[in-house]
Amino acid sequence: MQKFKTSLSFAVAAAVFAAAAPALAADVKLGFIGGFTGPIESLTPPIFAGAELVVEQVNAQGGILDGTLSIVSADGACDATAAAAAADRVINTENVTAVVGALCTGETIGAFNGSGLGAGVVFVSPASSAPALTTLEDNDLVFRTTPSDALQGVKMADLLLARGVNDIAITYVNNDYGKGFADALSAAFTEGGGTVAANVAHEEGKADYRAELGNLVASQNLVILAYANASGQTILRQAVESGNFTTFVGGDGMVGDDLLTGIDAASVEGLIATRAGAPTGESVDLYQQLANEAGIEANATYAPQAYDAAFLLALAIEKNGSGSREGLSQALRDVASAPGEIIRPGEWQKAKELIAAGTDINYEGAGGALDFDEAGDVEGIIVELAVEGGAFVEKGAIE
């Protein structure tokens, strides 16, 4: 009996000590799913670098939940099936709290439906721009920090009409991104008084698109809505060789150095493109300074939006008070929107202190304000780019 009492006394003492001790630090892991191979492979590394920069800043300024933040990447290959496998690994094997990604819209939908929905994992995509994401049945778990192509299509139409381009031929990659973008552009361009002379889908992965190009010659102004590392580059090269087009236009998926490989730069001088951008202001300037100091390409396509996605998720986890997936969606909405004291890129320590004090915060990021609507979308800004001297040059926001 005495032995039992002694054991009981030790057990009680241990329980009291455990209750009095501070909570142990919690290490937190984020996942990143993106097309490290496939049609956007040249775009993905700088996007990932934007997310990695957040991890470095968080750990340099006190960590997350007083532990360490890490990020593990997986290749979604811009493909729904590959993305589902990638999601299974990061969610069920790596046990991440949340996911930055994916990048292509079909990739994000495949990854989320594959493992994210059942596991209750929040996804924040920096690059999935197709309108299809707006109507995804996601239990308020899928968000994006880039505007929908419903906006990009309208802004591209506005830009072309303002330039005196009154007729266009569109070819788009036959997936959620291509079709959604083409539909938005076609509707806005027609409504603005322009003529869509042809609107033709094409399949990814072909070596020869000359037959498709033959169906597009009703206009000399060719809009290509595809990817720089895949059909977009092949179609542009073969369109230049045909001599049937004088003006070339591309969406965000076309903005990459690889697009111009093997193409005479002079033949595409002045090529017009659009992508998500950012307003001017203190938050954007601060992000660019931090990115430049870290040696990453601050304005690479979707790099600012990836930075915002990772920073928002880190803030939401800190606000949620644990590495649990439960409750993270609401915490994300809380830290992204007014009211609250403004938090800018790099201000992790300030944010931690405010959250610990119970003060509301409102993150304004590298891509601007990020007030999520009911569908998890943001408004955003679309900017114009042009090929000048063999490189893409950003020209400013499209009004």
Automatic annotation (TrEMBL):
UniProt entry keywords in alphabetical sequence: Amino-acid transport, Signal, Transport
Domain Leucine-binding protein: 28-336
InterPro entries cross-referenced by the UniProt entry: BCAA_transport, Leu-bd, Leu_Ile_Val-bd, Peripla_BP_I
Keyword Kinase belongs to the record: no
Gene3D superfamilies the record matches: 3.40.50.2300
Signal peptide: 1-25
GO biological process assignments: amino acid transport
CDD domains with a match to the protein in the record: PBP1_ABC_ligand_binding-like
Similarity comment: family membership: Belongs to the leucine-binding protein family.
Annotated protein name in UniProt: Amino acid ABC transporter substrate-binding protein
Organism: Devosia geojensis
